[in-house]
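hey m, so remember when u said the tokens were messed up on ur end? i reran from scratch. heres the input so u can diff it against urs
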Amino acid sequence: MNKIHASTAVYKKLKLFTPIDKSEIIVANKSIQYNKVEIKNLNFGYDNDFQFHQFNFIFEKGKKYAIVGGSGGGKSTLLNLITKKENCADNTIFIDGQDINTIMREQLLTSIAYMNQTVFLFNDTIYNNVTLFSDINELEYEQAIKAAGLIDFLNEQTQGSQYLIQNNGENVSGGQKQRIALARVLIRKSPMLLLDEAFSSLDPKTTYDLWRDIFQLNITCLAVFHDYDDSILRQCDSILAIKNGTLIEYGAFDELLEKKGYFYSLYNVVEIS
């Protein structure tokens, strides 16, 4: 009991100081559904050094988007702007038709799930690591762990969901850590998922298995990619190829390869390396 109280106390402190890139997800606010995220004539930069130049795009509900490009091209910055970690000019980003600058960041974050390579796990049970001590009913929990692909792992453990995580997850694999983080996302039913190279440190099979599960979800997903796995990218609804803050081209995987443009060069450089 003391361990649970201690873990809860640590979590409450982390809620105050830990940004969303620690996979902290709050219960979804039903007023923001992310039916459409529209970016209009976005210009953004630091100290007059513009990172985005007349950027225009519309992200539609339920679709899966891959964001690719060279290092420093603005991929992660785009996610930061959508979550208001960075501030854009008025009338450039709209959430369901509403200027993002008229929406409080706290309200935005209740409806966005964010994952990157860093997953923080408590020294506590898998159940508490997934639910984050929230009042979640058993059906919601079961649905989340099933969709995140945790069922087989839990069935292998004598304690099941009461299996104890040790030292930030040293007793589970990298893939299982990401699945726990994904279950955190799913249990809160956030309508939008942002992935910033979340699976880049995992082996190809684990990465593919995680994406297979994500593609089956009825949520909007924006994902920054470093590795260009064609078996994954071919399933994305659209690939955005960004260079120095400019949207060079976008479209389906095979369509972009046929153009033999910027994405074609990125893909072939990765394949050669």
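this time it looks ok to me. The first helix runs from residue 2 to 17. if urs says something different then somethings off w ur setup not the seq
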